Amino acid sequence: MAIVFAAAVWLLSSSITATPIQSSQRPNGNCKQFDIPIFATAPSATYDIPRVNNDIEATAWAIYDATRSTVHGVGNIIKNTTTSGTFKIHAQLCVPKSSQKKDIIQIATHGVHYDSRYWDSDFQPAEHSYVDASLKAGYSILTYDRLGVGQSDHPDAYEVVQAPLELEILRQLTLMAYNGTLYTFAKQARPNDAAFNNLTKPEKIVHIGHSFGSFLTSAFIANYGNLTDGAIITGYIYQQFLAQTGSTTFSVEYAGTSNPPYKGGSGYVVARKNGIQNVFFGGDIKTAYTPAMLEYGNSIKQPVPIGEFASAFSLLGNVGLSFKAPVQYLLPENDFYICRGDCNGLADADEIRNTTYPHATAIEVAIQPNTGHALPLHNNATAGFQLTFDFLARNGL
Ligand SMILES: *[C@@H]1O[C@H](CO)[C@@H](O)[C@H](O)[C@H]1NC(C)=O
Ligand SMILES: *[C@@H]1O[C@H](CO)[C@@H](O)[C@H](O)[C@H]1NC(C)=O
Ligand SMILES: *[C@@H]1O[C@H](CO)[C@@H](O)[C@H](O)[C@H]1NC(C)=O
Ligand SMILES: *[C@@H]1O[C@H](CO)[C@@H](O)[C@H](O)[C@H]1NC(C)=O
Ligand SMILES: *[C@@H]1O[C@H](CO)[C@@H](O)[C@H](O)[C@H]1NC(C)=O
Ligand SMILES: *[C@@H]1O[C@H](CO)[C@@H](O)[C@H](O)[C@H]1NC(C)=O
């Protein structure tokens, strides 16, 4: 069965137009925000998962999801389906003032509970915005709101926002970056900004992810190894402690009754502030982060469609024989959700090579000390960003 919910009129009228939103000057570059209509078709499924329409059902879903005998996988599928549609994806392209590495673009995919602002803190950006740090290091960078959150479309939380469709959206964005369409969108978006009028196609693409965005990034490089020139996997390593603390850790409520209420509808849940702290903040409470950072991290949180959790299994453990590029795993030392609070010793470059990316040109595991899951929102964030830029430079990127 094909679930088609393309907004046909919008599709016809917007084949290559972009909605004006915002253009901004940064200390080391320029950024422009715009919407991209992305046509995508992908396998999907009707999963046997509870409905969530109020706070009690939200907590009940979290308990269900964390229950040890709950099936996460094909065994939980009632019916296999296909989803096709044109989805509005909100994106921000930033280009550096220096031309040094301008032709290398990073495509950054955020995790659950956030949108693209995860990469681009408004709070003390010189210390906490990965976007600004990338511009300073000379890279172009594309950030986008994944389907279901931020200013992108918020389709059905059970049937539509699922992992394979999100993987396909990342593939389409990547193809658009390689073939120049992405830069055409950026140029055409209003207001006009000269910094975007004369961009040449990028020569190289580095994919970077955080958390669920790293599930997507690692599956992407495994399945489409010839569509990437390098990858940075942050806040994720596939091993026994992954998600062991369970979804109750998020302390969710129903997003439709939260303040302000979210328009996604049934099946979208949102973390309370203590859930944001549980998952995203870690390390020595006196030195790792400040109350203001936690406050900011809570203020930019986003709801999560529960179909994403039911379908996430498809992204795990994909083997990438076609990946022939460098990959860095950057783990926060005190990541509670991924490593149950201690990532030391859980990732090994040789083992990753043996099991997952045998033809990678380089595999590095780096640990960012005294830091929780939300790497940019800790005191030592810029030193962590530098670990990535140094790795890229060592590998010709
Ligand atoms: C759905 O597809 C998967 C993999 O293709 C298969 O293993 C599973 O049995 C199918 N489930 C149903 C209910 O058809
Ligand atoms: C570029 O790639 C996108 C995404 O696959 C596609 O829709 C578009 O037609 C391509 N454009 C050109 C000029 O090849
Ligand atoms: C546009 O880019 C081309 C090629 O990179 C360059 O030669 C030209 O000077 C640029 N034009 C402007 C107006 O920047
Ligand atoms: C990547 O590989 C696929 C299948 O192996 C092929 O169809 C495609 O043309 C390749 N793309 C590039 C950019 O090399
Ligand atoms: C990886 O494979 C090599 C060659 O088979 C083997 O010598 C090594 O012990 C393996 N390392 C790990 C960590 O699995
Ligand atoms: C900050 O991070 C860098 C890079 O990981 C590390 O070398 C340094 O020790 C850290 N500083 C503190 C105070 O944790």
Summarize the entry for a quick read.
By secondary structure, the protein is of the alpha/beta class. It is 28% helix and 24% strand. Keywords: Signal.
General description of the model:
Residues 132-226 form the AB hydrolase-1 domain. It comes from Glarea lozoyensis (strain ATCC 74030 / MF5533). This is AB hydrolase-1 domain-containing protein. Residues 1-18 form the signal peptide. Keywords: Signal. The protein is an alpha/beta fold and 397 residues long. The protein has a single domain (19-394), classed as Rossmann fold (3-Layer(aba) Sandwich), CATH 3.40.50.1820. The protein is 28% helix and 24% strand. The protein has 13 helices and 13 strands. It has helices at 8-13, 55-66, 125-128, 130-136, 163-179, 181-188, 212-223, 273-280, 291-299, 307-311, 336-339, 349-355, 381-394; strands spanning 2-4, 22-26, 29-47, 77-96, 101-109, 139-144, 204-210, 230-234, 252-254, 268-271, 304-305, 326-332, 362-368. Strands 1, 2, 3, 4, 5, 6, 7, 8, 12 and 13 form a ten-stranded mixed β-sheet that branches. A three-stranded antiparallel β-sheet has the order 9-10-11. Helix 7 (212-223) links the parallel strand 7 and strand 8. Helix 5 (163-179) crosses helix 7 and helix 8 packs across helix 9 (291-299). The longest helix is centred in the middle third of the chain and has 17 residues, at 163-179. The chain is globular and about 55 Å long. Mean pLDDT is 93; it is low at 1-21. It binds 2-acetamido-2-deoxy-beta-D-glucopyranose (6 copies). One 2-acetamido-2-deoxy-beta-D-glucopyranose is lined by residues 198, 200. Residues 74, 77, 79-80 line the site of one 2-acetamido-2-deoxy-beta-D-glucopyranose.
